[in-house]
């Protein structure tokens, strides 16, 4: 059975698209046929992060309006086997997505794919609600700060009341993905700790992605950061994917890096 | 002959009686909106009986009804000084219940200069004139099959409504109302969430949101929680805000109750 997973947050700019790209790539690398859909109609950028912006011909809205077939619109990832991207339209607005239209596309994708990852737009309004409506599971992307946690809390409320599963009385499985985590700033109490966020949101922790320059570098190169095996952010996403697939993996990168003996000797930064 | 297609039954209904003491539109609207804002969940779309203490002109009465509807109340019937208004009442689709028998008990207001009559015959905790709430409405049981006197504040029947039990976190933006009884939440209540109950409220988690107990005027209602971190706590319309809640019981197990018009916070051992 295909699983539909929405990547959502309420607050904007917290790392939904970065996470959607990394997680879908990770699932495909693990051998699962995966499609990632950009629900951010009008502001598409998943294709940029995935490095396939030049290959976009048709988009999600074209498929919904039957101006193109799903086959025509799906972009096969160049680097990773088993991975496809369904880009968003740049010229339409969020009203172009209709419940029936989205459902028809998802039903068709379900026949072919194991995982359908939905990259939600920011906010808690119609666009975000459309992205989460059909979800079986939700990855709630949160930054360790009060306003982001508050918005994640609201989105969890919406998942419980406005998703199709909620309407049928079946809960959506919830995962917390804490991103842009900076242990040094947590220690100096400028940011909330993992424990603080877990206590407020009270949902299982899927992963903690450290704040990392590798993320920006990766997005400039159009290459999901999970492919950067040397970067801690890449490794943290790889761990999160394993957990999503049911493995138990300890959390890493939660503490500020202690200066090693040699670094101290050499006066390293 | 076809099969029976309807049946007629009698019923009793608890509704709000809005006693209109003095109708000066702007002032009236201001006071009424303020009252509604104190417990929006309770008032929104609740059915209403207008009790005209003084006769109104047809225009004034139309204004009054429009005003109530605009504030999301649903006037359904009128009593009191209605003699001149019969055609208008008819035109507006309301019922004239000036001839019906009522059991609503109007308790003496503490401060006669204020338009304040609050009553609740369903409350066994009511103790005559020491009603603390100041309001321009009175919640009353409009049961028409009984002729109980105003002093009959003991429950007419021993009706015990089971508590409403919520087993998941109540998130920011969500509201839960336990009508006619207690509310039990076995998880945490987020900042920005609102709990309302006609009876007591119990939170077996952290209470970070708002809790309004005894919203229909039960001054004996209490709020209990495992960890007190509330934005607002209200009992029978008396409330305290976050700043006041902070104190010796902050983030500790506590109960809040009304004593002589003042909310008391007490630790739970
Ligand atoms: N772990 C990280 N470390 C450093 N920068 C990050 C990290 N995650 C995301 N970013 C940066 O944060 C910005 C926003 O990321 P992204 O576009 O993924 O967020 P979003 O939630 O999809 O935003 P929107 O709400 O606009 O869709 C980008 O500049 C991205 O490079
Ligand atoms: Mg995005």
TrEMBL record, chain A:
- UniProt cross-references to Pfam families, sorted A to Z: CbiA
Protein keywords = ATP-binding, Cell cycle, Cell division, Nucleotide-binding, Septation
Q: Does the keyword Metal-binding apply?
A: no
Say if the entry is tagged with keyword ATP-binding.
yes
Residue ranges annotated for the CobQ/CobB/MinD/ParA nucleotide binding domain, each copy included: 5-225
- Subunit structure, as described in the record: Interacts with MinC and FtsZ.
Q: What job does the chain carry out?
A: ATPase required for the correct placement of the division site. Cell division inhibitors MinC and MinD act in concert to form an inhibitor capable of blocking formation of the polar Z ring septums. Rapidly oscillates between the poles of the cell to destabilize FtsZ filaments that have formed before they mature into polar Z rings.
Q: What is the similarity comment for this entry? A: Belongs to the ParA family. MinD subfamily.
Identify this protein by name: Septum site-determining protein MinD
- Origin species, per record, is Alteromonas gracilis
TrEMBL record, chain B:
Q: Biased-composition ranges for Low complexity?
A: 119-152
Region feature (Disordered): 105-154
User: Domain Septum formation inhibitor MinC N-terminal: where?
Assistant: 6-75
What keywords does the record list, in alphabetical order? Cell cycle, Cell division, Septation
* Family according to the record: Belongs to the MinC family.
Q: Does the keyword Glycoprotein apply?
A: no
Q: Quote the function comment for this protein.
A: Cell division inhibitor that blocks the formation of polar Z ring septums. Rapidly oscillates between the poles of the cell to destabilize FtsZ filaments that have formed before they mature into polar Z rings. Prevents FtsZ polymerization.
Name the record gives this protein: Probable septum site-determining protein MinC
| Gene transcribed to yield this protein | minC
Q: Where is the Septum formation inhibitor MinC C-terminal domain?
A: 165-266
Q: Where is the composition biased (Polar residues)?
A: 105-118
What quaternary structure, including any partners, is listed in this protein's UniProt entry? Interacts with MinD and FtsZ.
What InterPro entries does UniProt report for this protein, alphabetically? CAP/MinC_C, MinC, MinC_C_sf, MinC_N, Septum_form_inhib_MinC_C
């Amino acid at each position: 059975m295909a699983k539909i997973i929405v990547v959502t947050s309420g607050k904007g700019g917290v790392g939904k698209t970065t996470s959607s790209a990394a997680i879908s790539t990770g699932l495909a690398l693990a051998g699962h046929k995966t499609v990632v859909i950009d629900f951010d109609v009008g502001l598409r950028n998943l294709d940029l992060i995935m490095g396939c912006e030049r290959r976009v011909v048709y988009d999600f809205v074209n498929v919904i309006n039957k101006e193109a077939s799903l086959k025509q619109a799906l972009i096969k990832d160049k680097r990773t086997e088993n991975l496809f991207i369904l880009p968003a339209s740049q010229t339409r607005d969020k009203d172009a997505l209709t419940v029936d239209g989205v459902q028809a596309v998802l039903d068709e994708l379900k026949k072919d794919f194991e995982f359908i990852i939905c990259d939600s737009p920011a906010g808690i309004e119609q666009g975000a609600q459309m992205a989460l409506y059909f979800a079986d599971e939700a990855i709630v992307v949160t930054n360790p700060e009060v306003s982001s946690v508050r918005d994640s809390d609201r989105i969890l409320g919406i998942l419980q009341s406005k998703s199709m599963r909620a309407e049928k009385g079946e809960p959506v499985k919830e995962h917390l993905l804490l991103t842009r985590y900076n242990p040094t700033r947590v220690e100096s109490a400028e940011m909330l700790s993992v424990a603080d966020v877990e206590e407020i949101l009270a949902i299982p922790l899927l992963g903690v992605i450290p704040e990392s320059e590798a993320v920006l570098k990766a997005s400039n190169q159009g290459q999901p950061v999970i492919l950067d095996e040397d970067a801690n952010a890449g490794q943290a996403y790889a761990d999160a994917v394993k957990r999503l697939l049911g493995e138990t993996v300890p959390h890493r990168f939660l503490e500020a890096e202690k200066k090693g003996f040699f670094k101290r000797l050499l006066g390293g930064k | 002959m076809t099969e029976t297609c309807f049946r007629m039954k009698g019923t009793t209904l608890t509704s709000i009686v809005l006693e209109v003491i003095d109708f000066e539109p702007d002032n009236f609207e201001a006071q009424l909106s303020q009252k509604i804002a104190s417990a929006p969940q309770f008032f929104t779309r609740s059915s209403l009986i207008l009790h005209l203490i003084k006769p109104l002109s047809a225009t004034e009465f139309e204004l009054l009804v429009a005003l109530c509807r605009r504030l999301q109340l649903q006037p359904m019937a009128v009593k009191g000084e209605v003699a001149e208004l019969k055609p208008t009442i008819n035109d507006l689709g309301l019922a004239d219940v000036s001839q019906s028998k009522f059991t609503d008990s109007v308790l003496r207001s503490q401060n006669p200069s204020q338009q304040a009559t609050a009553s609740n015959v369903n409350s066994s905790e009511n103790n005559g004139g020491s009603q603390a709430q100041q309001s321009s409405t009175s919640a009353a049981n409009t049961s028409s099959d009984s002729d109980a006197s105003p002093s009959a504040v003991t429950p007419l029947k021993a009706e015990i409504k089971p508590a409403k039990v919520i087993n998941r976190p109540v998130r920011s933006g969500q509201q839960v109302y336990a009508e006619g009884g207690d509310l039990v939440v076995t998880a945490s209540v987020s900042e920005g969430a609102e709990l309302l109950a006609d009876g007591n409220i119990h939170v077996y988690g952290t209470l970070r949101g708002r809790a309004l107990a005894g919203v229909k005027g039960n001054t004996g209602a209490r709020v209990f929680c495992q960890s007190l971190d509330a934005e607002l706590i209200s009992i029978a319309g008396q409330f305290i805000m976050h700043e006041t809640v902070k104190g010796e019981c902050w983030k500790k197990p506590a109960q809040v109750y009304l004593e002589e018009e003042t909310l008391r916070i007490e630790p739970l051992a």
